[in-house]
Structures are given as C-alpha cells and as structure tokens.
Amino acid sequence: MMKSINPIPIFLLGLLIVGLYGCHPNKEKVSSLSIKSMDAGYVSIASDTLEKLKASIAGQLLTEEDSEYTTAIEIWNSKRQKRRPAVVIKCQNEQDVVKTINFVRTHGLLLSVNGGGHNSSGFALNNGGVVLDLSQMDAIAVDPEKKTVRVGPGVRWGQLDEATQAYGLATTGAIISQVGIGGYTLGGGLGWLHRSLGAASDNLISARMVTADGALLQLSENENRDFFWAIRGGGGNFGVVTSFEFKLHEVGPEILAGLVFYRMSDAKKVVRFYREYIKEVPDALGTWLLFRKAPISAQLPEEIHGEPIVAIAITYNGPISEGEDYSAPLRNIVPPVADLVKTRTYTAWQSSLDGAWGNGFHNIWKGHYFMEVTDEIVEVLQRNVPQGSPYSDVKIQHLEGAFGRMPEHATAFGNRKSRFGMVIQTRWLDSLKTTEQELWTNRLFNELKQKGTGKVYVNFMDNEGENRVKDAYSDSTFIKLKKIKKKYDPENLFRKNQNIKPD
User: Fold this and answer.
1) Which of 73, 198, 202, 399 has a C-alpha 20 to 30 A away from that of 175?
2) The whole model's pTM is what?
C-alpha cells in the first residue's frame, strides 16, 4: 500500500526553493555582471568577485537590483540623468576609495567619480561602468585657532559654511550652497569672495589623494609639490582627493550683500557706469553682472516678472557701513526696479540663489573670459536673453583683486590677467525643448566668442572636447599638466572629467 505524503514538508521545501531561486521556476542565479571597460567594450565580472569587494568595504556596493540604486544615481543635471552605471560604490572612508580604484584598474573598467554631482557636464555618471560615490565622506573639522578646516570630499558648501561660520570664519566657496567642495576646488573655485580671499584653490593648504595605482599620497607645498600644483585648477584628472584642508579667514557672520535690478532696456547705461565704478572699488567688494528674465518672486514687483533684466550682485567682505557707502551709487545709475541689497548673514547669502538652481532641470554651461564688458557684448545679450528660457541666465563676474595678484603659474588655475569671467547657464524643464535650448546656447556662445580672450574657466564648461579643455590653460601649463598626468595616471583611468590626456 502506498504511503500518504505529508503536504507540509513539501510546502516548506517549496518556500526554500523560492528563497534560493526566486519566484519564477526557470529563473537562474546571475553568475556575472557585464561592466563597461575603458576601451568602450564590456568586461564580465563574476558575481563572486563583486561579492568579495562588497564584503571588503565599509560602504555600499549597489547594482540596478538594489532599491537604493535609483537614489544613488540622481545628479543635479536632468539632461545627463539617463546614464545608468552598472555599479555604484558609496565609499565610507579612504580604504574604500583605495579598494574601488584597485578593483577598477585591475579589471580595466570605466570609472566616474561623484562628489557633489552639481555640474552641467554630468561626468559624475557614466553608462555601464563604475561610479565611485564620495557623498558619505562628509566629515568636517574646524580649527578656529589655526583658522583652518579639514573636510571630506562629499561635503557641500552649505555644510562647510555652516561649520566655519560658527566661528566667524569662511573661505571662498560656490555661490550655490548645494555645490560639492571637490570638483569646485579642483577646477579653481570662483565665488562671492575671490576678489578679497583668492580662489578656493588658492586657499587649499593640503590634500590627501588616492592615485590611479592605489597609492595614498599627502599633497602640499612641501610634499609632492608638482602634484599639489596640478590639482589646484587641473580638475579631477589625477586621482581622488579624500581630504581637503583649507585656510580660513574672518568673514561676517553678517555682511552687506544682495542684488540691484534694472530693466534690460537700461543695460548699456548700467554697464557703462559699472565699467568705471569697479576701477575704484576695493578688493573687499565682489560684484557679478546677471542678465536674465526676472524670476517670479515675491521680492520683485509683479510687473517685472518674466521681463528681461540686468542685475548687479554685490558682496562686501568688510564693515557694513563701508559696504553701504560702496553700494549707494548703484541706486542712482537709473531708477532700479528692485533693490535687495541689505545686511544678512553670510550663510544666508551663500544659499540665497539655491531656490533657482535646484535639481530637476536640464542644464548647459558654456563660458568665456573677457578683458572688458563692452557695449557690443551688452548688445548681444540684449538681443539674445529675451529669446531664452525663463530659467536661464548669463553671469559675468569681476575678477582681479586677490585672484588677479596670484602669479600666473603659481597653480594650474591660470588666466589671472583676465578681468571678467562669463558663463551662459541655460536651464529648462521640458526635455522636448532640448534641441531648441542647445541652439540658443550655441548661438549666444558663438556670438560672444569673438568678444572674448579665447580662454575659459574650466568649471564653466560643458562637455566640449579636448581643444576647449586646452583653452582653460596657458600652453606651458597645459604641457606641464600632461606630463604630470602621464606620471600619475598613464592609462587615463580618471578620464570622466574635463580630460587632460597623458602624453
């Protein structure tokens, strides 16, 4: 007689099978992952190999199967958001960085480094390769006695300013507080304070870096000096910085800062006055010109919303009363449509533009250096800005001051004799309008090109190719950077950037 079968053990066996192989009866365990290589092909990496790496690091190793993956690949520029890396490694410490670089180099994989991800080029992501994510390395240590701060590469400027302003200290930072300190500093670093304090890279005292061969180096004027010279303006071409040490200065906590808005029809009068005005101002006064359509803001009169305007943004890094004296003439050029200059905390000023520059938009950045903001440049802007997106602007920053006094070849960040830096920051919501916005940007860029010096600030570039990268440097600096690149990264492992190829 046949024995009856107890259904309970069979049910339990079924659960075990589902747990091991998934719900689909024919689903097999994935044995490998195809990852893009540096030569644009693909490498098959065994799952066991990935698991060993995952077990060896303190951070996370994520693939598309992980629930955290979608959040991990979010970056500021939606135009670049379609890129989907095969692996994201969220490093917790230096050793995680070393192990990730060794893994990528050993297998010849394509690598991107994501610090803040707040740049139009979108180099923080790639398609099919590995992303080394530094966002969790966000320690900040302020030494108020020495007036220095050491920060991790995942720190953003809002975090750093909050920590240093607790002691009434700051260093030159980005004018948007969500920007990461890493790419900004390695590219040079211009902001509200570069005229009084110099660029962010001018205030870099030391750095710790992991090189392409997995070595951990200390960089300063006394250690690996050629390498230290290169990272101050040469971008992320040479390795992954795991720690930055900055010089701090007394700033605020309250400063006089803000914008004065005028109608675009008055732009020539405003700029003609501005050209003379800045010849007499001290280094403590930083100014930017902005050309755009007036945003819909409660701080601006309704009748100007959406209308083309020009604005002068000022930051006075000194006594409030002195700042008021220097700002007063700006109200008498022509009747302004709004005057937002006031006493405010430095941290409030550093984050005042954040609302207009958050995530969720498509973006393009393209720039030039100018020796003068001529009437012809103003005419080009008066003609083109009204045709642009309501979210776009053109910013022109006054350089000179402490930035201009730094010797031309003291760091890789050159073009110190240029008097003005300009960036077209094109910004739009609808992906269907991408071609239209690209055409507008390129038309404006090309019209302004003949007015410029031919050079560009590396942080004000899109993905424009090797010849445009050369324009960010003098010939001698570019040659020197290529030699240093060959010494420390001969295989061009760190290529997802404004790339300087090794000789």
Assistant:
1) 73
2) 0.90
